[in-house]
Each structure stands twice: as C-alpha cells, then as structure tokens.
Amino acid sequence: MSSVNENSAKFDWVKGFTVDFDLKTGMSTSDAVSSKRHVSNLKGMFADDKATDELITNGDPLVYEFYEMGAPEKEGDLAFGSSITYPGKVGNEFFMTKGHFHTILETAETYYCISGKGYMLIESPEGDWSAQALSPGKMLYVPPRYAHRTINTGDMPLVTIFCFRGDAGHDYGTIETKGYRKLIVQNDGKEEIIDNPKWK
Ligand code: NI
User: Fold this and answer.
1) What is the pLDDT of residue 1?
2) Distance 50 CA to ligand 1 centre (A)
C-alpha cells in the first residue's frame, strides 16, 4: 500500500475520526479515494508475459484497488484501510497484488478478511514462506520481516481490512526485481503452488 495519498488531508489524525467501509465490498462510503492497479501496472510480475500483453491489449482489466487513509508516517500512528483484489487470471496464474516488504522490515501487519477467498503468500528474505488461506471472518497476522501478497483464487472480490504502523513504509522494489519464490496457479481446475520460473 502506498503511504502518501490524497485521503490523508481528509481525516483528523490529531483528534480522531471514523471512516466507513462496506461490510461486503470493502469500498469506502466515506470521502475516500481508492488507488487502482491494472494488469499493465503489474507487467512482468506474472509468469506469462504473452498472456499479460494480451490482457493489456484487451481492456487492461483492474486487478486490485485499495483505500489507504494516508496516515502520518510516524512511529505512533497506524496506517489502515481496505484492499480489494478482483477475481481473474493471467494465463493460469490468479490475480494478485504486487506484494511488498516493509521498509522497516521488522514491521508486522494484520489483515481481516471480510469477503471472498484466496491466500496471503508470505515470504522472508531468507526464503521461508507460507500460503495463508483467507476467507470471511479470518484475521491474519503477517509477522515482521515477511513480504505479503494477496492472491484471489475465488470467483468474487477478495476483500481485507489491513493495519500496520504508520512509518513502516513500503519496499516494492525487491519484489519487482526478484519476484516471489512461489506462484499460485490453476492446473486442471485445481489450485497449485509452484516455483516461480522468474524468481532471481
Ligand atoms: Ni504491508
């Protein structure tokens, strides 16, 4: 989640505020604006470059969007919001978020799933990884040091509410350069976790 956005000035970070998220869709009915990521924004991150290019040519579908309130980047503040990953595939690989480490690597994060089905794929710099199943009502703890990426394996939007320390920052570059060690794909109608052929 990017940390500077136009929502920041709309909320009173000194005195407190409330913000509405729809209990099903995760969309904010407050005065918040979401950030959107289309297939073209994830070019090179999916294993199948040909399928990526075809999708970009054919309408460049929306893969995910998120609401982040624009928390002050201070130790005592909390960044929070909702994340909506849409159903779909690039080739046989499920739609996913870019995924990131936190710039302050020793930063955990929570995600509460309110709708949809899928996984949070988490991985440490040392290569430890796991795919944590998400379904409505499950709250996930992503421990410090682990990169995290949401993957929608269902047929409806996968919606989560997230929260982490305000000054943690985002390191997208490591994942953009190296990729993830694992991918989640559909083979013969079944979900499968495979090695990422592009991982460096
Ligand atoms: Ni995060």
Assistant:
1) 45
2) 29
For residue 38, what are the CA distances in angstroms to 31, 64, 67, 92, 116? 23, 7, 15, 17, 19
How close is the Cα of 109 to the center of ligand 1, in Å? 6
* Distance from the alpha carbon of residue 162 to the mean position of ligand 1, in angstroms: 8
Ordered by where they begin, the domains of the chain are: 5-195 (2.60.120.10)
Residues in CB range of 124: below 8 A, 6 or more apart: 145, 146, 147
Residue 6, pLDDT score: 84
Mean pLDDT of 53-78: 96
Distance, CA of 112 to CA of 119 (rounded, Å): 12
**Phi, psi (degrees; rounded to nearest 5) at 170:** -130, 130
- Per 3-state DSSP, what percentage of the chain is helix, strand, and coil (rounded to 5)? 10, 40, 50
Q: Could you report the per-residue pLDDT of 33-59, keeping only the tens digit for each?
A: 999 999 999 999 999 999 999 999 999
Closest CA to 35 of 128, 98, 106, 116: 98
- 1 C-alpha to ligand 1 centroid (Å): 6
Q: Residue 102 C-alpha to ligand 1 middle, in angstroms?
A: 6
Backbone phi and psi for residue 101, each to the nearest 5 degrees, phi listed first = -90, 160
What residues pack around ion ligand 1 (CB closer than 5 A)? 109
pLDDT at 23 over 70: yes
16 in Cβ contact with 71 (< 8 Å): no
